[in-house]
Design brief:
Elements lengths: L1 E5 L11 H14 L5 E7 L2 H4 L6 E11 L2 E10 L6 E7 L1 H4 L10 H19 L5 E5 L6 H9 L7 E6 L7 E2 L3 H4 L8 H4 E2 L2 E3 H8 L2 E4 L2 H6 L3 H4 L3 H6 L4 E3 L28 H14 L9 E5 L8 H14 L3 E6 L3 H13 L4 E5 L3 H10 L2 E4 L9 H7 L3 E5 L2 H6 L13 E3 L4 H17 L1 H12 L6 H14 L3
Parallel strand pairs: 1-2, 1-6, 2-5, 6-7, 7-11, 11-12, 13-14, 13-16, 14-15, 16-17, 17-18
Antiparallel strand pairs: 3-4, 4-5, 8-10, 9-10
The protein binds alpha-D-glucopyranose.
The site of alpha-D-glucopyranose has 14 residues, from α1.
């Protein structure tokens, strides 16, 4: 089966969030199945171009019309012996030769260019995929462009959209339809939402299948609270909407081999080695070392929908009235950055905040954490709760989206479950769940250890999700 994937990021080339992790692991997992040929298309950002680790060779270059614009498209291939999985970069200095990846005033135009260039590139390369799999809003114009302009060149190709987060939809002015896409008024209804051009909505209505990254989130987004402006559209398109829970790379996230860790451990060496990892983390972050207090932590984008407002709300109580230590790592909205830095300043030795994105510190935090906090208001899948379980930390989560699907609540009577959950989005319930986790930690160490060790041995690999994607592709192709 021939599959093309398009996305705005993929690790290790460039990653700003969970999408990058998925785009590294999913194509890889699919390529391990029989008879697969996968091409992944990414923008050729400055950061990738300048990185010596990614040698490329040019496949072709050509001019492409984007409405009245005559644009340059370069197609580069990552030099690699792998035949079943190939990475291609779409080059254009104007659009991608910048320091920032997203957040530019012309993001809509940049990713419209990318989307059209992917189709043109495949045509030039004579690559005719059976499935075109688009990820998130940045690749969301591909199904529409395919239907309006490329159908005859990619006869029978089916399109799939995966929504990694409905919070980011891609938006442009109404004039974008003609001015950038060069399409006529007959497509106005297809692209319009709330008066503007909405990229994600466009793909929801034009692709053959829509997936999102957990079963619960797939249900949730058809309700007004989670689905918001797209709720009605998603209800209409519900028959083609499914949820496939993400995995993680079990190799990359392995506390027994992770080179970012100063102390490595596995389920068998828990809790002795974990204690050493905790001590190393305390030392690195300047936390008090003469304590048995559990280390609570959060590694996250500091955004409202990640539930950071709940953390700032209970932060003071947590620091004043509980015998715990708190570690925060992330950057984002300035009110949260300030509130959390302030908390760390007022409770030195007890709370540490690293404001910024620091992947290797993040891994040491997972390794040194007892209780991992994930109070997200919404969470399509979430990878951190999976990583934390693998690194011997127990998750405390709001029971939504992928958190609900992957963190079954701990049952004090039977000892079953994986973590501690709360059901309604408020600080008291969040604190209540933290207290239940701390109670098990302090008062039932045998049960705590058993729970941690069981979680560490769980299989979160991509094998199962890859098979689910594959059967979706087969269904679309009538196989
Ligand atoms: C987004 C979502 C996250 C998901 C990730 C990968 O970052 O917010 O929940 O795990 O995409 O699908």
């Amino acid at each position: 089966m021939k599959i093309a994937m398009a996305a705005a990021e993929a690790a290790p080339f460039l990653k700003t969030g969970g999408l990058g992790d998925v785009m590294e692991a999913l194509p890889q997992a699919l390529a391990e199945e029989k008879n697969m040929e996968i091409c992944v298309f990414l923008p050729y950002y400055k950061a990738i171009k300048q990185n010596q680790n990614y040698p490329v060779e040019e496949v072709c270059n050509f001019r492409m019309q984007l409405s009245w614009r005559d644009t340059y498209v370069g197609v580069l291939h990552l030099k690699s012996p792998r035949r079943k999985l190939r990475f291609y970069f779409i080059d254009n200095e104007d659009y991608f030769g910048r320091d920032s990846v997203y957040g530019c005033f012309d993001d809509g135009e940049r990713f419209a260019f990318f989307s059209k260039a992917v189709l043109e590139a495949m045509d030039h390369m004579d690559f005719r995929p059976e499935i075109m799999h688009c990820h998130d809003w940045q690749a969301s114009l591909i199904p529409l462009l395919f239907h309006s302009q490329y159908q005859d060149r990619f006869n029978g190709m089916k399109t799939v959209l995966t929504i990694h987060n409905l919070e980011y939809q891609g938006w442009a002015n109404p004039s974008f339809l003609g001015e950038v896409l060069g399409l006529g008024e007959e497509y106005r209804g297809t692209v319009t939402c709330d008066g503007g051009v909405n990229f994600l909505k466009t793909a929801i209505v034009t692709s053959d299948a829509v997936t999102t990254v957990s079963r619960t989130y797939a249900e949730e987004i058809t309700t007004p609270w989670f689905g918001r402006n797209l709720c009605t559209i998603l209800q209409q398109e519900k028959p083609k909407l499914t949820g496939i829970v993400n995995g993680i790379s079990m190799k990359r996230f392995d506390p027994s081999t992770d080179s970012d860790l100063t102390v490595r451990f596995d389920a068998d060496s828990y809790p002795e080695k974990k204690a050493k990892a905790k001590d190393a983390l305390r030392q690195e972050l300047g936390l008090n070392r003469d304590t048995n207090a559990p280390i609570l932590s959060i590694v996250s984008r500091l955004a409202g929908h990640k539930g950071i407002d709940l953390l700032t709300y209970i932060g003071e109580t947590l620091m004043k009235d509980r015998d715990v230590q708190l570690v925060i790592c992330g950057s984002g909205e300035s009110q949260y950055e300030q509130a959390l830095s302030d908390l760390a300043r007022r409770y030195p030795g007890k709370c540490a905040a690293y404001i910024g994105f620091h992947p290797s510190l993040a891994n040491r935090i997972y390794g040194g954490t007892d209780i991992y906090l994930m109070p997200s208001r919404s969470e399509p899948c979430g990878l951190s709760q999976l990583i934390s379980m693998r690194y011997g930390a127990i998750p405390v989560v709001n029971s939504v989206g992928g958190l609900k699907d992957t963190v079954e609540p701990y049952n004090e009577v039977t000892g079953e479950g994986r973590g501690f959950t709360f059901q309604s989005y408020n600080g008291h319930d969040f604190l209540g769940a933290i207290d239940r986790a701390c109670d098990l930690y302090w008062n039932h160490p045998g049960e705590w250890t058993a729970l941690v060790q069981r979680n560490m041995r769980l299989d979160f690999s991509w094998k199962q999700p890859a098979e689910e994607y594959l059967s979706l592709y087969r269904r679309l192709l009538g196989q």
